[in-house]
Predict the structure.
Amino acid sequence: MNHWSGSQALVCLRLPPLPRPLPRAGAGERTRGGSAARQGRGEFFFFSFLRVGPSLEIRARGVINSWVHSTLKFLRVLPAHQEVLGQRAPRAAPAAARPCLVPPGDGGREASGRTSRRGSCHYRRTRKHRTEVPIISSPCPSWLSVGPEAMGISNGWFSDRWRRVNFALRALYHLATHNKRMKEQVALELQFVNSNLQLLKEQLAELNSSVEVYQGTQSKGNIPMIPLGLKETKEIDFREPFKDFILEHYSEEPDKYDEPITEFMDLRGAMRTPERDDSGVGLLFEYFNQLYFIDRRFFPPDRSLGIYFEWYDSLTGTPSCQRTVAFEKACVLFNLGALYTQLGARHDRTSAAGLDAAVNNFLRAAGMFRYLHDTFTNAPSKDLSPEILDMLIHLMLAQARECLHEKALLGHSEDFETVVELSQEAANVAQEYAQVLKTISDPAVKGYVPASWISLVHIKADYYRACSHYHIAEALLTLPCSIKEEEHIGMRVREALQYFHLQPSNNTTTIDITVPSCRRERTILGLAHCREAVLVHEEAMRQHRMCRDLKKKSVLAEVLQIGHETAVHLLDLYVEEEDLLNILDPPPISPATKVQLSLTTPDFSQHRVEDLFKLLGPVAVFSAKHQWSAPRPIKLTRTPTQGFGFSVRGDAPVVIAGVDRNSLAERAGINEGDLVVCIGTRDVKWMPHDEVVGLIREAGNTLNLTLVTPCDKTYYKLPKKHC
């Protein structure tokens, strides 16, 4: 027996990697993050213990060998003077001296039933290993009882691993020592596991909800947009299911379709990591249109091929799995909408052309989400639910409206009427974000979206409301004040502000001036708006400081700071008049805009594709939902004065329209409604009527046909043509 002489030891615990794969970066991009946790290698945590003896070594044996190894990469006690990694561990103690951990529910499978009471644990002897198995029964500290649901983790994979790790920690806590003081020290050090798991969870949420990943490099002076990450999916091997179905259903040689199957799998693989540009959009549309043919060719309504489409949630990483192609289509369309949001956030928002392109992409994203909302229902994934899609539609429209306001600010004139229009445009943007905030605060949505999104929407609503007040304050306070122009200016102000303010409510703190009639009233009203702008800017800055994720965004902090300082500077120019308005609020501003936005419905016809499995025949006839007999060869031999005795009609494929009684065709087994698939060795499923008739006549006195008999004869009728 090897007794360890060291007075201190380290426990090295490796937790499993994150449950969700990282978002894939497009060509020319680098995936964010470089920590061990983000790269899927897990995290190491070290805990020190005093007076460690050989009985403290915890090893996985027997029944729980695979269980522990699937949860903990290794859990081993090493002397402190050795290197934790790369060194050989001390020789293990004999089996009889080593306690064996058994998870709940597994201890009784091989137990003999004999138990004894030792301290705070029950011990049960097993026949297989003849070791004493401790069954934890005494209470554990509260931090060991925290479940994944309490941490906000809904991922099933993570929850399962959490319970296993939690049980291992409970066992370590009870087996470490019976000394109360030492147990408290162990409990304190093991709390790092909880804190690091929480950190990993927050890093995952930050990576999925980051608003900086897809921002344009030339838009640093603007508030960041909110892009949406793509859903991810696993690879699927379609070879065996498709080949089996081709052989069974279409009665054709499956090896002929190796190339189309490979091409379809390559297309799906490329679709998983599209480029962040128009070529990526085209790739997703191409795959979506190809799914139309795949669905009709290989997915019958009454059976399953054993193909499961598994997709991960865009924000939480929770997997969802279904066997229907409709789920695959919905996820592809969601990725199209998400890709449009990324393109909109990437455009240069310092130029009119870049802002127009951003507006176009945000409207396309909103149109895609609207199409999903109206077309696909009862989706298993949370990001495809009607509540989330409705929130995304409002969010994309608000961001498009924000880009239009930024475009209006580029090179605008300083005349009073233009500034009044800018103020109403800013109020309209604030109203749009207020609607988004109302939608995102719904209980079905609030618990799903990242907290940084909610904070950023709140900040934008306050920021643009403050901008609205500042614009009108600047217009009122900077007007020329010469006596000669007073009458003309007063008329312009009255005309511009006639419908500018909303009717104030019965609030005694609201200033009773909506259309100023003189210079003094203009100053009073302007200062009231300026003071309101300062207060609302301060509220936006407070919201920014309260959000842990957003307060790290220096660009956002800089924009908010500049807006606040500009309003404060304008207010400081009128220190004397400010005393009159310390308790007076300005009347609310009426939102207005000259540009009406409309959703851009997806146009699938712009990305036409060719059926990869065209050789199977026209999809309207040769599809998975139709049934027909196995192909049968027919050989007809006639005399020079004799006819074959049948007529055909239709195109692609040609159908047997009629069979003469007592003719060669009737005796050979040709029936009305049979489909002609081959003449000789030539496939004629796609041939028009005239070419098929020509081949029959060119055959001479011997005609070799391959026919199939459909089970549902629902083909159109055409005039007969005798052969």
